[in-house]
Design a protein that fits this description.
Shape: globular
Distance between the termini: 50 Å
Number of helices: 16
CATH topology of the largest domain: Endonuclease, Chain A
CATH class of the largest domain: Alpha Beta
Strand order of the largest sheet: 4-3-2-5-6-8-1-9-18-16-15-10-12-13-19
CATH architecture of the largest domain: 2-Layer Sandwich
Strand content: 15-25%
Length: 470
């Protein structure tokens, strides 16, 4: 009996030492690879407090060969960006110059934009444009569902591929829960080339939760492009009973900025499967309007945290007004500081967020940031009729942004994102009219977190602790 007790004691001690070693190694890796000090601190505390559970979570969500990924992806992107054309570049100075420096692309002149409000208008316009394609189609979505909306896109791509149009499709699906094999086989059998963006190499292979490609983009014949907030599923038509009505925005673009959007697709495709589309994506469309524009595509492989700098540039560019619509409000500290300083300068800072949740941690975490902005004179508004998913910004009376970037740490540091910035009063006027309608269906937050219920206050403060890894 004594021998058995001693054996159990030794075994338990060995297990405890093994857990401690794993926890220390995981903590050290978190210290080396986390994108922010806050993120490293959050992971290390979780790992040390719950060694086994925290280490497993870190291996799934946190650990990866980020440094190698960043170095190799950055080199790949730079090779593609060197091919950007200087044709039809706008004369400086432009209100978009700071964004162009972040994007590492020039501000272009002679562009046009049409707003597409909500899912039906978006899908109708995108599918109609796909059916008019004559030579090439670039299509990229974060998620595509195997439902009637996804099948309609699939059938449109198959029809064009069989008609001789070259079709490339990028889709960042999760392993085991993505599109079924038959769905993708029907596309490839018709000649559609499909690729999935690659993330950093990790112990669990393709189980990649960070460094996801969140971009939404359709480019037709290098002449017409679409981008915005929608993915491809019935959810974006408000037909998901677990979420309900849905509010979102896409936009159609013509002019030289389409070449920049095609360049971003080419860069993603090159990294995904090694095929160089630079010749296919080359050529600058003719002038189509009077707007200046630049396509900014933040990447977690960059050294400058372009996603965060994008929001900081919005705040610094604004002189009178900065309206932002975002489904998630979990800002990095530097971004929050820039927004607060803009409000203190007298800028009309309004943030429009959902009044209902699709992800509860980010929903409650946002509440913990509301007071920070409100105390500086900014306003938070919650949209009531539907879940609002659009990623739109309006600066003063002449600068707008429409794309996929959320005002959260994940978009700023961990995702590949895309937005088009426009300089032009008529484009800004169209976005202003749209946002005025949205604010008319929203409620201003006038309650401090301390005045909310004890449960809400607790959930918000606990959720904020996870902000660095959200």
């Amino acid at each position: 009996m004594t021998a058995l007790v001693e054996l159990l004691t030794i075994t338990n001690a060995a297990i405890a030492v093994a857990f401690a070693v794993v926890a220390l190694v995981a903590s050290y890796r978190a210290l080396l690879t986390s994108r922010t000090p806050q993120g490293a601190t959050a992971w290390i505390l979780l790992i040390l407090l719950l060694p086994l559970f925290g280490s497993v979570l870190y291996l799934v969500f946190g650990h990866a060969d980020y440094k190698r990924f960043e170095r190799e992806r950055r080199k790949s992107d730079e090779e593609m960006f060197d091919m950007a054309s200087d044709d039809q570049v706008a004369e400086s100075p432009s209100r978009l110059d700071s964004f162009a420096r972040i994007a590492r692309l020039p501000v272009t002149n002679g562009n046009d934009m049409s707003l597409l409000i909500d899912g039906k208008a978006t899908y109708d316009a995108v599918l109609e444009a796909i059916r008019t394609a004559e030579s090439k189609l670039f299509v990229q979505f974060y998620t595509i569902a195997d439902d009637d909306i996804g099948k309609e896109l699939r059938d449109a791509l198959i029809e064009k591929a069989r008609a001789g149009v070259s079709v490339w499709l990028l889709h960042d699906e999760m392993p085991f829960v993505g599109l079924p094999r038959y769905f993708k086989k029907q596309l490839t059998d018709a000649g559609v080339r499909i690729a999935r963006p690659k993330g950093p190499k990790r112990l669990l292979g393709p189980l990649q939760f960070n460094y996801r490609n969140h971009r939404k983009l359709v480019v037709i014949d290098n002449k017409l492009a679409f981008t915005g907030g929608l993915n491809v599923s019935k959810t974006y038509l408000g037909r998901n009973p677990s979420i309900g009505p849905w509010r979102d925005t896409f936009a159609a673009f013509r002019g030289p900025v389409v070449a920049q959007l095609a360049l971003h697709f080419s860069s993603d495709w090159m990294w995904a499967c090694g095929e160089d589309l630079s010749d296919i994506a080359s050529g600058v469309p003719a002038r189509a309007g009077d707007f200046r524009a630049v396509a900014l595509a933040p990447s977690p492989a960059e050294e400058i945290a372009a996603g965060n700098l994008y929001f900081i540039a919005l705040a610094h560019t604004a002189q009178k007004r900065l309206w932002i619509s975002t489904p998630y409000f979990v800002p990095d500290r530097d971004v929050l500081t820039a927004l607060r300083f803009a409000a203190l300068r007298g800028v009309d800072v309004k943030i429009l967020v959902p009044g209902r949740a699709d992800h509860y941690i980010t929903y409650f975490a946002a509440m913990a940031y509301f007071d920070d902005l409100r105390s500086a004179g900014g306003e938070i508004w919650t949209y009531d009729p539907a879940f609002i998913h659009q990623k739109v910004a309006l600066v003063d009376d002449d600068v707008t942004s429409i794309g996929s970037i959320n005002l959260d740490i994940r978009s700023g540091l961990l995702n590949f994102e895309l937005t088009v910035l426009l300089e032009g009063e008529s484009a800004a006027s169209a976005v202003e009219d749209m946002l005025n309608t949205d604010f008319g269906n929203a409620t201003r937050v006038d309650v401090d977190l301390s005045d909310r219920s004890v449960i809400i206050g607790m959930l918000a403060r606990v959720a904020r602790l996870f902000a660095p890894v959200l």
